[in-house]
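Entry for the shared binder. Reason: the reviewer on the internal report wants the predicted structure included alongside the sequence.
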Amino acid sequence: MKKRNRVLIIGKCPPPLGGVRIHVARLLTALSRRHFDQFDFADLEKEPLRILLRQFHFHRVIHLHTSNPYVRLLIACICRLFRKRLLITYHGNIGRYSGLKAFAETLSVRLTTIPIVSNNDSFFKARSLNPQTVLIAAFIPPLPCNPLPEAARRLIGQLRSRYPFLLCTNASDLSFDKSGAETYGISGLIRYTGQNPLIALVISDPTCRYRRFIRQVIDPLPDNIGFITGFHDFIPVLQQADAFIRHTTTDGDSLSIHEALHTGLPVFATDVVSRPEHCITYRHLSTLEPTLMQALRNRRPAPTPPTADTVAKLTELYQKMLQQ
């Protein structure tokens, strides 16, 4: 096999945690387990651009994973220049940006050989820009997880002993949308939960940036709120909770939602994008109360939806492009 007849997967892996990083790590592991060996990996965090450019020469197909619209556009232009076939997985919702970022996103979709999107809203928007757009779910089932640190287990145990119901959510980092609102809406969730004596909320905050931000905007922190910081797997948190809530202002095909459904938890999510089946969607927290409490009181394991074989679809796409 000639080395140039290979796929170069470009992205970042944990740590730190984040939906895109976890997706890339699971994809690399799954490809190896399925004995698909026609790929190499380049870490955007560790390899400078000149090294990446050198690797382009030895690969026919490039598959890029990044949330940075400027990097996507740069790689798309380079691939056009060197006549490489480019796949870009758009993990966030198409149309989430404004200004220069929106322009970069639009142009990268046009220049990419096959854009890959993960929800219906993004599919229709991207398809109007590039007819080759395909819809492939981003969720890859979790691998065996590490147990939670002792401090996190102790925190969850304390909250469970003091409150009837435990909600969980997460934020890979502190970020704001194009309107300046918190992307993950954590401060709104904290204020909402702080007024409900029956519910506790545990927040996975691996970077610790959110906890520092919350200390500046909410003081004192309600007793029914807990933060788990540092590198940790989210699945064990889901396994200890009664429900998962995703209070985002913009989104893609949320990995955490799929993990929660896979675990059998009730899932509550804002209706800012199309959500998977079995999600309970809402527009504002003020409209959530009756539905949330009913679901918590009548908790039954949520039906686990069938999992699309994302890795099989990507492998088929790789093989098709390598043969062209």
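Summary line for the report: Residues 27 and 311 are 7 Å apart (CA to CA).
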